[in-house]
UniProtKB/TrEMBL annotation, chain A:
Gene Ontology biological process terms in this record: D-alanine transmembrane transport; L-alanine transport; L-isoleucine import across plasma membrane; L-valine import across plasma membrane
Keyword Nucleotide-binding among record annotations: yes
Organism: Papillibacter cinnamivorans DSM 12816
Record's keyword annotation contains Nucleotide-binding: yes
Residues annotated as domain ABC transporter: 21-274
A GO molecular-function annotation: ATP binding
Name this polypeptide is given: Branched-chain amino acid transport system ATP-binding protein
Keywords: ATP-binding, Nucleotide-binding, Transport
Pfam families registered for this protein in UniProt: ABC_tran, BCA_ABC_TP_C
InterPro entries linked to this entry: AAA+_ATPase, ABC_AA/LPS_Transport, ABC_transporter-like_ATP-bd, BCA_ABC_TP_C, P-loop_NTPase
Cellular component GO terms held in the UniProt record: plasma membrane
TrEMBL record, chain B:
This protein's UniProt keywords: Cell membrane, Membrane, Transmembrane, Transmembrane helix
Gene Ontology MF terms in the entry: branched-chain amino acid transmembrane transporter activity
UniProt keyword annotation of Lipoprotein present: no
Name listed for the protein in its UniProt record: Branched-chain amino acid transport system permease protein
Keyword Membrane applies: yes
Top-level taxonomy: Bacteria, Bacillati, Bacillota, Clostridia, Eubacteriales
InterPro entries with a match to the protein in the record: ABC_transp_permease, LivM-like
GO CC list: plasma membrane
UniProt superkingdom: Bacteria
Subcellular location: Cell membrane
TM annotation in the entry: 63-80, 86-111, 118-135, 166-193, 214-234, 254-274, 286-309
Membrane topology, from the record: Multi-pass membrane protein
Organism: Papillibacter cinnamivorans DSM 12816
TrEMBL record, chain C:
Membrane topology: Multi-pass membrane protein
Pfam families: BPD_transp_2
Alphabetized UniProt keyword annotations: Amino-acid transport, Cell membrane, Membrane, Transmembrane, Transmembrane helix, Transport
Main location, first listed in the record: membrane
Gene Ontology cellular-component annotations: plasma membrane
Intracellular or extracellular location(s): Cell membrane
Transmembrane segments: 6-29, 36-57, 69-91, 103-124, 144-169, 197-223, 235-257, 264-287
PANTHER family referenced in this protein's UniProt entry, alphabetically: AMINO ACID ABC TRANSPORTER PERMEASE PROTEIN, BRANCHED-CHAIN AMINO ACID TRANSPORT SYSTEM PERMEASE PROTEIN LIVH
MF GO annotations: transmembrane transporter activity
GO biological process, alphabetically ordered: amino acid transport
Family listed: Belongs to the binding-protein-dependent transport system permease family. LivHM subfamily.
Name used for this protein in its record: Amino acid/amide ABC transporter membrane protein 1, HAAT family
C-alpha cells in the first residue's frame, strides 16, 4: 500500500528541517516484556548516527521496528523521501521500505551463498528492475539493457569496495571481511537516502575496522546519504559518528556528540556501574 | 571496465542434449534403437520437463511439493478429454490443460506463505492424494479405473506419428530449458534464490515473498502440467493409480539426483530415475529378469549417488573438467559452480 | 449408540497402527532432522520376515502353540526391524549427515524404500502372505456390540508400547539424552551426550515401532509390498496434524485422524470420507500452521 501524494499532504506528519528520520515515542512489547519504551530520536541528512547500549538494550529491535520487520505497538517512524514527502513507515509492508530510500544490513550476514558476489550486489538493486518476468524469460531488449546497466552499477560498487577481482566468485567460502563489505555494498545498490547498519564492525580485526571506517566516510561523501548504525566497538563508534544515542533496557539514556556521551554520568553508570 | 558474465551463447549445452535425443530417430529408423527404447527416451523427455519445474521450486526457491503427480495427472486427463471427447485442436487442449492446474498451483503458492518445510510438503501431498481420488471417482470424465485413451498430438489437422511426436517433444524440452535458463539468470532468478537463502534479506531488498512464491509455483505447475499433456499424447493411456505419491517422489528424486539448482540437471535426473532401470538394469543377464531387481539397483544407486554427489550428478561434469584441467596441467581458476 | 461403539473400537485399533508409525517418524525426525520415507517399507519388510517365520513355524510346531508363535513372530519381526534400523543408521545416515545437503537425506530414504520394495519379492516370493491375529475366533459383546478380542488386545498393546516409549523418554537418563539430542544436537554433543548412539537407537526403535504397526495391521489385510502405503501417508498427516515439535503430538494426531476418518467414512462414504478428512486437515493446518501442539520458532535477525 503506497500513499499517494494527496493522501500524504492531507495528513502529512511533520519533520523538522534537515531531519531525515525520526522515531517518535516508539514502544514494543514481547509477551509482557517491554523491549522498547517511548523511544524518540532523529537522524539528520548527511549524518552518521550511532546507537550504543549493552546487550539486550533493544538496539536491534529498534532497527527491526524502523525497517518494518516488527510493527511498533505505538509511535511513529517518520521518514523524508527523496521527493520531500514525509511518510510514516509503519504504514508500509517490509518489502516496500527499501523503495522509499531506506535500506538495512544484518547482524548475521544474510548474503546468498549460492550467488556470486556481483549477483549478491544485484539483489540489492532489485527495486530498479522494472521489466516483467516474461520480458526476462524472453530476454527482450528492454530486459537485456536493464541487466547490463545495473550490472555496470554493481561493478562500480565492487570497484569502490576494492573487490573487482572477486566479482564472479561465489559468496560461499569468502572470508568474513569480504562478506561484511559486500553486505554493506549491497545496501548501496538501492540508491538509499539512509543506510541502517547492524553491527558492521562485528568480528573485524583492527585493520579491517580501519578499512571500514574509511569506507563509511567514503560512502557518506560519494553516495550523499546518512548512516544509522549499531555498534559495540566504542573506538569505531566514537571515530565515525557525529551523534550517538545511548540506550539501556529499551529506553533512551542520552543523545549527543561522542564527547558528550562519553562524559555522560548515566551512560557511564549503565556501562560501568556506579562508582 | 570488464563486465562479468559475458557469455557469448550459453545455450549450447541444451542444444547438444536436444540433438542427442534427436539422433535416436535415425538410429531407430536404422533398427539400432528399438521402438520401446524410443518410447522410454520420450518418457525421459517429459519427465525432464517436469523436473525443470521441480528445480525451479526446490533448487531455486526453496519450496517443496509432493503433489506434483496430481497436477500432471489433471493436465493429462484434461488434455485427453479435450482432444478425444471434445475434438479440440492440440494447442487449445494444451492451453486449457495447463491453465486449470496452474490456477490451483497459484492457490498453493498463497498457502506456502503460511506453511513451511515439511508442513508444506505434507499439505501438497494431501492435495495430490485428493486429486488422485478425483481421478478415480469422476468416472464420466476420467473413465475411472478403466482408464482414458488419447492419440498422438494433432497439429494443423494432421495426427502425428510416434517418431514425429518424439521429435516435437525434444524441441519442446529445448525451448523449456532455454526459457528457464533465461529466468534463472535474470533478476527474477536472483530474487528466487534470495528468497530461498534468506527471507529477511530478500524482504529488506524489496523482494515481495508473496509475488515470488507465486511465480515459483506458477512456473513449476505450468511445466508439470505441460509434462502431463506430453504424457497423455505419447503414452496415450492414463489410469488413476499412476498419479500417486510414488510419482511425486520420483519428481523429487529427479530433481535432487540430477542437480536441483541447475536446468540441465533435470535431464540427468530423468535419465537416471526413468531410463536406467528400464534400459540398463533390466537388460542385465540373469538378474535382470528377477522382478524387483531394477528397483533394488535403482535404490542402491540413488543412495550411492547422494552419498558422494549430494549436489547432484551434474557435479560430475565439473569434476571431469577439473580432472581434465589437472591432466592438461592448466590451472582452472574460475569456479565451475557459478551457474549452469 | 452401537454404531458409535463400533466406530470407537475400530478407530482405536487403526489409530494405534497410525500412532506407532507416526511415533517412529517423529522420533527419527527430531533426533536426525530428516523425514524418513522408509518408515512404511521397513514395517513392510519386517512383516514379511515375521510372516515367513510363522509359516516356517507352522510346519514344525503343533497347532496348539500357534498362539505363542504369533507373539514370537511379532518379536522376531520387531527385532529384525531393530537391526535394520541400526544398519541403516550406521552405514548410510551417519555418513550422509556429514557430507550431504539436508534435502538429499529424505531422498536417500527413498532409495532405501526402493531397495526394500525390490528385495521383498526376490527374497519372499511374489505372492502376498497371510499373518494371523494374536487371538483368533474370539469376540466379546460390549454394550450390545460384537468386538473381536484381538482388537482389544491390539488396542491395549498399542497403548502399552506408546506409554512405554513415553515413560522411557520422560523418566530415564537415556530418555533425557534423546530429548536433549532432539532439542539441539550440537549442544547435546558438547555436553557429553553420546548423540551418535542416540540417533542409532532412535532409528532402531523407530523401525521396531514400524514393524509392530505393520504386524497389528497385517491380519486384517495381507502382507504385500503396498500394505503400509496408506498407513505411512496417514502417519505423515498425523505428524502434520500434531505438530513436529513434540513427541506426543503426532501420536494424538494419529488417533484423532483415525477417528475422523472412520466417522466420515461411516456417515458420508468410504471413498469421499478420506478426501474430506484430508481437506479438513489441510484447512486446519493453514489456520494453525504448526499443528495442534507446535510452536513457531522465530528466527532472530
Amino acid at each position: 500500500m503506497t500513499l499517494t501524494k494527496e493522501a500524504v499532504h492531507k495528513e502529512s506528519p511533520d519533520l523538522k528541517e534537515g531531519v531525515l528520520l525520526e522515531c517518535r515515542d516508539i514502544s514494543i512489547s514481547f509477551g509482557g516484556i517491554r523491549a522498547v519504551s517511548d523511544l524518540t530520536f532523529d537522524v539528520r541528512e548527511n549524518e552518521v548516527y550511532g546507537i550504543i547500549g549493552p546487550n539486550g538494550a533493544g538496539k536491534t529491535t529498534v532497527f527491526n521496528i524502523i525497517t518494518q520487520f516488527y510493527k511498533a505497538d505505538s509511535g511513529a517512524v517518520l521518514f523524508r523521501e527523496a521527493n520531500g514527502n514525509v511518510i510514516d513507515l509503519v504504514s508500509l509492508k517490509t518489502p516496500q521500505v527499501v523503495r522509499k530510500g531506506l535500506v538495512r544490513s544484518f547482524q548475521n550476514i544474510e548474503l546468498i551463498r549460492d550467488l556470486s558476489l556481483a549477483d549478491n550486489l544485484l539483489v540489492g538493486a532489485h527495486i530498479h528492475f522494472e521489466t516483467s518476468v516474461f520480458s526476462q524469460m524472453l530476454r527482450l531488449p528492454a530486459a537485456r539493457r536493464e541487466e547490463r546497466v545495473l550490472r555496470e552499477k554493481a561493478m562500480q560498487v565492487l570497484s569502490f569496495l576494492g573487490l573487482t577481482d572477486r566479482a564472479d566468485q561465489l559468496a560461499a567460502g569468502q572470508p568474513y571481511g569480504v562478506l561484511k563489505k559486500i553486505e554493506l555494498g549491497r545496501a548501496l545498490l538501492s540508491d538509499p537516502r539512509l543506510i541502517i547498519l547492524d553491527e558492521p564492525a562485528a568480528g573485524l580485526n583492527d585493520t579491517e575496522t580501519e578499512d571500514l571506517t574509511g569506507l563509511v566516510h567514503a560512502i557518506k561523501k560519494d553516495y550523499n546519504c546518512s548512516i544509522l548504525l549499531i555498534e559495540h566497538d566504542m573506538r569505531f563508534v566514537m571515530d565515525i559518528c557525529q551523534r550517538i544515542c545511548a540506550m539501556s533496557f529499551g529506553k533512551k539514556l542520552a543523545v549527543g556528540t561522542p564527547e558528550e556521551i562519553r562524559a555522560h554520568p548515566a551512560v557511564q553508570e549503565a556501562y560501568l556501574g556506579e562508582e | 571496465m570488464k563486465l562479468t558474465k559475458t557469455k557469448t551463447f550459453p545455450y549450447w549445452k541444451y542444444i547438444i542434449v536436444c540433438l542427442l535425443f534427436l539422433v535416436m530417430l535415425p538410429l531407430n529408423a536404422a533398427g539400432i534403437v528399438s521402438g520401446s527404447t524410443l518410447l522410454i527416451l520420450g518418457t525421459v523427455i517429459f519427465y525432464a520437463v517436469v523436473g525443470v519445474g521441480m528445480n525451479i521450486l526446490l533448487g531455486y526457491s526453496g519450496l517443496i511439493t509432493l503433489g506434483g503427480a496430481g497436477f500432471m495427472g489433471l493436465a493429462a486427463y484434461l488434455s485427453g478429454f479435450c482432444s478425444t471427447r471434445l475434438g479440440l485442436p492440440f494447442i487449445l487442449c494444451l492451453v486449457i490443460s495447463i491453465a486449470v492446474p496452474t490456477v490451483i498451483g497459484l492457490g498453493i503458492g498463497v498457502v506456502s506463505l503460511r506453511l513451511e518445510g515439511f508442513y508444506l510438503a505434507i499439505a501438497t501431498l494431501g492435495i495430490g492424494e485428493i486429486l488422485r481420488q478425483v481421478f478415480v471417482e469422476f468416472e464420466p470424465f476420467t473413465n475411472g479405473f478403466s482408464g482414458m485413451r488419447a492419440a498422438y498430438p494433432k497439429l494443423f489437422g494432421i495426427v502425428l506419428t510416434r517418431e514425429v511426436t518424439y521429435a516435437f517433444y525434444a524441441i519442446i524440452l529445448l525451448i523449456v530449458m532455454i526459457l528457464v535458463h533465461n529466468i534463472v539468470n535474470s533478476a527474477t532468478g536472483r530474487a528466487l534464490l534470495a528468497m530461498k537463502g534468506s527471507e529477511s534479506a530478500a524482504q529488506a531488498m524489496g523482494i515481495s515473498l508473496l509475488k515470488y512464491k507465486l511465480i515459483a509455483f506458477a512456473i513449476s505447475t505450468v511445466l508439470t502440467a505441460l509434462g502431463g499433456v506430453m504424457y497423455m499424447h505419447l503414452i496415450k493411456y492414463s489410469y488413476p493409480t499412476v498419479w500417486g505419491l510414488g510419482m511425486s517422489l520420483n519428481f523429487l528424486s529427479i530433481s535432487v539426483i540430477g542437480g536441483m539448482q541447475t536446468v540441465l540437471g533435470a535431464v540427468l535426473g530423468a535419465l537416471f530415475v526413468i531410463a536406467v532401470p528400464e534400459l540398463v538394469i533390466k537388460q542385465l543377464p540373469v538378474i535382470g529378469t528377477l522382478t524387483g531387481v531394477a528397483y533394488v539397483f535403482n535404490g542402491l544407486f540413488i543412495v550411492l549417488v547422494l552419498l558422494f554427489y549430494s549436489d547432484g550428478l551434474i557435479r560430475i561434469g565439473s569434476d571431469v573438467k577439473k580432472l581434465v584441467g589437472k591432466i592438461r596441467g592448466k590451472k582452472n581458476d574460475i569456479d565451475q559452480r557459478s551457474g549452469t | 449408540m452401537s454404531n458409535f461403539i463400533q466406530i470407537l473400537f475400530s478407530s482405536l485399533e487403526i489409530g494405534s497402527v497410525y500412532a506407532l508409525a507416526a511415533l517412529g517418524i517423529i522420533i527419527i525426525f527430531r533426533t536426525s532432522q530428516l523425514i524418513n520415507f522408509a518408515q512404511g517399507s521397513l514395517g513392510m519388510f519386517s512383516a514379511y520376515i515375521a510372516a515367513f517365520f510363522i509359516q516356517g513355524g507352522e510346519s514344525s510346531l503343533e497347532v496348539q502353540v500357534m498362539k505363542h508363535s504369533t507373539i514370537i513372530a511379532v518379536l522376531v519381526g520387531m527385532l529384525a526391524a531393530f537391526l535394520m534400523g541400526v544398519i541403516i543408521d550406521f552405514l548410510v545416515v551417519r555418513r550422509a549427515k556429514k557430507q550431504t545437503s539436508p534435502l538429499a537425506l529424505p531422498i536417500i530414504t527413498l532409495g532405501i524404500v526402493m531397495m526394500l520394495t525390490g528385495l521383498a519379492p526376490i527374497v519372499f516370493g511374489g505372492n502376498p502372505l497371510a499373518f494371523p491375529r494374536f487371538i483368533e475366533n474370539a469376540s466379546v459383546s460390549i454394550l450390545g456390540v460384537t468386538i473381536m478380542v484381538n482388537s482389544i488386545v491390539c488396542i491395549i498393546l498399542g497403548f502399552m508400547v506408546l506409554a512405554a516409549v513415553f515413560l522411557f523418554l520422560q523418566n530415564t537418563v537415556w530418555g533425557l539424552a534423546v530429548r536433549t539430542t532432539a532439542s539441539n544436537e550440537t549442544t547435546a554433543r558438547l555436553m557429553g551426550v553420546p548423540t551418535k548412539i542416540v540417533t542409532m537407537v532412535a532409528w532402531a526403535v523407530a523401525a521396531a515401532l514400524g514393524a509392530l504397526s505393520a504386524l497389528i495391521l497385517a491380519p486384517s489385510t495381507v502382507v504385500d509390498i503396498v500394505m503400509m502405503d496408506g498407513v505411512q501417508l496417514n502417519a505423515f498427516i498425523a505428524c502434520v496434524l500434531g505438530g513436529f515439535q513434540t513427541f506426543y503430538g503426532p501420536v494424538i494426531g494419529a488417533y484423532i485422524l483415525a477417528l475422523t476418518k472412520n466417522i466420515f467414512g461411516f456417515y458420508i462414504s468410504t471413498t469421499w470420507g478420506t478426501a474430506i478428512n484430508y481437506v479438513l486437515i489441510l484447512i486446519f493446518i493453514v489456520i494453525r500452521p504448526y499443528g495442534l501442539f507446535g510452536k513457531k520458532t522465530v528466527k532472530k535477525v
